[in-house]
């Protein structure tokens, strides 16, 4: 498989490194980056492209976006229109309805698929499956240490440095959560798209001095099952790298290579 990556930041670099664990080695890996990152890509022994056309000319079998919302808008519809299945990590970008529609139309007209990666959150498979028989409620709770909310509107609602106990500061819909707290947009949007949608999915955000890291909880009540899943991501060597997200993206590659997908 020839893999295309869009973005070579914390997640892109992790995905590229993790491809060494695949049972079947890739036949190629082309990374679409800004010009200032070309040297970094080439130092890793990979092919760099600074134009989308160059990436597409290399005919990747699968493209993974891990560059951010702007890159989803700039590149993903064109990747899909070129007939290439594209995995999206920046799922929060799809809360923009016009972009969601463009992506969906591009995929529909070429037959390629846009794959919203579960990323940092788990249980997306069961949540999505339960949609067929009816879901009553879905609540996403994002819990992070106070300093992790610095630079977000939480700062205006709380004295982050003075917190001594877990303090919820936002309750609303997944759409509102994604709009007001973009750093949490990807997970809130992923949970919403898998289940009840952006307006019926509830979201609670908590600043918790005792949180050991970024914790995602999803609570689901449905006709055929009720479940709660709690993901406590461990810190990786690079504090900004979401280890679980890169692993989730690699899984999309692995599942397309081997005879058995899981
Ligand atoms: N689904 C999830 O659970 C989840 C979790 C974490 C992050 N994410 C998404 O993944 C994205 C990447 O995360 P990261 O930690 O690697 O971020 P990062 O900032 O370390 O890396 C992003 C890289 O993409 C590059 N980039 C941005 N726009 C680009 C463009 N138009 N063309 C080429 N390169 C471009 C940047 O220069 C940067 O090097 C985030 O923006 C976020 O939206 C999703």
Bound molecule kinds, no repeats: nicotinamide-adenine-dinucleotide
Mean pLDDT equals 95
Through-space gap between termini: 18 Å
Which residue ranges are poorly predicted, with pLDDT under 50 across at least 5 consecutive positions? none
Secondary-structure-based class equals alpha/beta
Helix content: 25-40%
Give your account of this protein's structure:
With 262 residues, this protein is of the alpha/beta class. The chain is 35% helix and 24% strand. It is built from ten helices and eleven strands. The strands form two sheets. Strands 3-2-1-4-5-6 form a six-stranded parallel β-sheet, with helices on both faces. Strands 8-9-7-10-11 form a five-stranded mixed β-sheet. α4 links the parallel β4 (62-65) and β5 (85-88). The model has no long low-confidence stretch (mean pLDDT 95).
Describe the secondary structure blueprint for this structure.
Elements lengths: L1 E5 L3 H9 L9 E5 L5 H6 L3 E3 L2 H6 L4 E4 L3 H13 L3 E4 L8 H14 L3 E3 L7 H7 L4 E10 L9 H4 L9 E7 H7 L4 H10 L7 E6 L7 E8 L3 E7 L10 H15 L5
Parallel strand pairs: 1-2, 1-4, 2-3, 4-5, 5-6, 7-9
Antiparallel strand pairs: 7-10, 8-9, 10-11
The chain binds nicotinamide-adenine-dinucleotide.
The site of nicotinamide-adenine-dinucleotide (NAD) has 28 residues, from helix 1, helix 4 and helix 9.
């Amino acid at each position: 498989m020839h893999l295309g990556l869009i973005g070579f930041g914390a997640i892109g670099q992790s995905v590229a490194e993790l491809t060494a664990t695949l049972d079947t080695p890739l036949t190629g890996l082309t990374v679409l980056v800004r010009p200032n990152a070309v040297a970094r890509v080439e130092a890793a022994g990979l092919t760099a492209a600074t134009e989308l056309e160059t990436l597409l000319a290399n005919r990747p079998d699968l493209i993974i976006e891990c560059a951010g919302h702007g890159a989803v808008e700039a590149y993903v519809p064109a990747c899909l229109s070129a007939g290439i299945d594209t995995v999206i990590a920046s799922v929060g970008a799809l809360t923009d309805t016009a972009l969601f529609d463009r992506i969906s139309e591009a995929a529909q007209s070429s037959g390629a698929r846009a794959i919203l990666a579960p990323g940092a959150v788990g249980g997306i498979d069961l949540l999505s499956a339960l949609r067929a028989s009816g879901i009553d409620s879905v609540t996403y709770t994002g819990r992070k240490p106070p300093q992790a909310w610095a630079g977000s509107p939480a700062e205006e609602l709380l004295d982050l440095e003075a917190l001594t106990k877990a303090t919820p500061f936002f309750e609303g819909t997944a759409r509102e959560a994604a709009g007001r707290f973009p750093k949490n947009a990807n997970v809130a949007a992923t949970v919403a798209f898998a289940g009840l949608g952006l307006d019926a999915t509830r979201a609670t955000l908590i600043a918790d001095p005792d949180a050991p890291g970024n914790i995602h909880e999803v609570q689901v009540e449905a006709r055929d099952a009720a479940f709660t899943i709690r993901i406590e991501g461990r810190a990786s060597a690079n504090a900004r790298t979401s280890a679980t997200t890169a692993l989730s993206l690699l899984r999309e590659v692995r599942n397309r290579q081997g005879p058995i997908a899981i």
